[in-house]
């Protein structure tokens, strides 16, 4: 279930709600859902004069395959960055299975696996070294890391390239090794920002299968994308984001109704224009 707060209510990190002086009355923000994999309340983020995220509320159910969709500049990456502790919100709260992310960051982040947008890796390490390093950073013992790294490389079809430097990996291989690094500590939830961008169809299919198995095993996946068909086939829940706010959220069937997800998305986000003045392109 998703709740919307009005644009006049800001809840500072770690504090009570405040109301900007140019508003009449605040709209109360509902409490976070302690049973949700992620529960976002009243998130705000401004960059200069641009408000990237405004009063955003969202609950991601445990065990769901959750798609976050929106046009470029909608606030998806900013939202996920705040939801995972990579970016501090100007206001609002994030709870990971009931744990306040900003009050208890070590505890909350230990349960998350993150694949940020435009991820930068230590690409002068081999694939095996990178995944091993990620496990050791999580405080895991070397034997467990070695076993899991081998299993993950095999699952990602990267065993033959385990000793190849990441800088020499293709885009699809890079996404897969980054995903392996995010999964090495067996997180309870994976937060993936555009995991299929610049990935070939075979690699994308392999990644989808791995994520589907992970959800079947009790994990939660939150994935951002602007490819509606992919989200419609892959996810069981979806939130449509536009102008930094949640426009609709729920199961895929609830959100799309009797339309395709793409048509519902366009209806909510708007922006479709008719191409006029291009008659000169006609060849007959």
Report on this model:
Keywords: Antibiotic resistance, ATP-binding, Nucleotide-binding, Transport. Residues 38-268 form the ABC transporter domain. It holds the Pfam family ABC_tran. This protein is of the alpha/beta class and 284 residues long. It has a domain at 112-187. Helices cover 31% and strands 22% of the residues. The chain is built from 9 helices and 10 strands. The strands form 2 sheets. Strands 6-7-8-3-9-10 form a 6-stranded mixed sheet, with helices on both faces. Strands 2-1-4-5 form a 4-stranded antiparallel sheet. The longest helix is centred in the last third of the chain and has 16 residues, at 201-216. It is globular. The relative contact order is 0.16.
Annotate the secondary structure layout.
Elements: E1 38-47, E2 50-60, E3 65-69, H1 76-83, E4 91-96, E5 99-100, H2 105-109, E6 112-115, H3 127-137, H4 142-155, H5 171-183, E7 189-193, H6 201-216, E8 220-225, H7 228-234, E9 237-242, E10 245-251, H8 252-256, H9 261-269
Parallel strand pairs: 3-8, 3-9, 6-7, 7-8
Antiparallel strand pairs: 1-2, 1-4, 4-5, 9-10
Low-confidence stretches: 1-12, 14-25
Helix share bin: 25-40%
Q: Which radius of gyration do the C-alpha atoms yield?
A: 20 Å
**Which geometry do the CA atoms define?**
globular
Could you give the order of strands across the largest sheet?
6-7-8-3-9-10
The computed structural class is alpha/beta
- Average pLDDT over all residues: 88
Distance between the termini: 52 Å
H-E order:
EEEHEEHEHHHEHEHEEHH
| Beta-strand content estimate | 15-25%
Subcellular location: Cell membrane
Domain ABC transporter: 38-268
Biased composition (Low complexity): 16-26
Region (Disordered): 1-31
């Amino acid at each position: 279930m998703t709740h919307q707060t009005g644009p006049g209510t800001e809840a500072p990190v770690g504090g009570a709600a405040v109301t900007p002086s140019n508003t009449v009355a605040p709209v109360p923000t509902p409490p976070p859902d302690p049973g949700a994999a992620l529960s976002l309340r009243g998130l705000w983020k401004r960059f200069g004069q641009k408000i990237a995220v405004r009063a955003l509320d969202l609950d991601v159910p445990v065990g769901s395959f959750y798609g976050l969709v929106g046009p470029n500049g909608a606030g998806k990456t900013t939202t996920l960055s705040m939801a995972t502790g990579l970016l501090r919100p100007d206001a609002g709260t994030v709870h990971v299975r009931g744990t306040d992310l900003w009050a208890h960051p070590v505890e909350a982040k230990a349960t998350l696996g993150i694949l940020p947008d435009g991820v930068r890796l230590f690409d002068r390490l081999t694939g095996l070294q990178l995944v091993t390093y990620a496990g050791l950073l999580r405080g895991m013992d070397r034997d467990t890391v070695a076993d899991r790294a081998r299993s993950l490389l095999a699952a990602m079809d990267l065993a033959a390239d385990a000793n190849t430097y990441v800088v020499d990996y293709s885009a699809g291989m890079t996404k897969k090794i980054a995903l392996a690094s995010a999964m090495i500590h067996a997180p309870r939830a994976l937060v993936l920002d555009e995991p299929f961008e610049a990935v070939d169809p075979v690699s994308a299919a392999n990644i989808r299968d791995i994520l589907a198995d992970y959800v079947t095993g009790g994990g939660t996946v939150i994935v951002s994308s602007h490819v509606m068909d992919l989200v419609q086939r892959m996810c069981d829940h979806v939130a449509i984001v536009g102008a930094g706010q949640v426009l609709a959220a729920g199961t895929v069937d609830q959100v799309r109704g009797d339309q395709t997800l793409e048509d519902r998305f366009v209806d909510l986000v708007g922006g479709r224009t008719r191409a006029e003045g291009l008659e000169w392109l006609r060849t007959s």
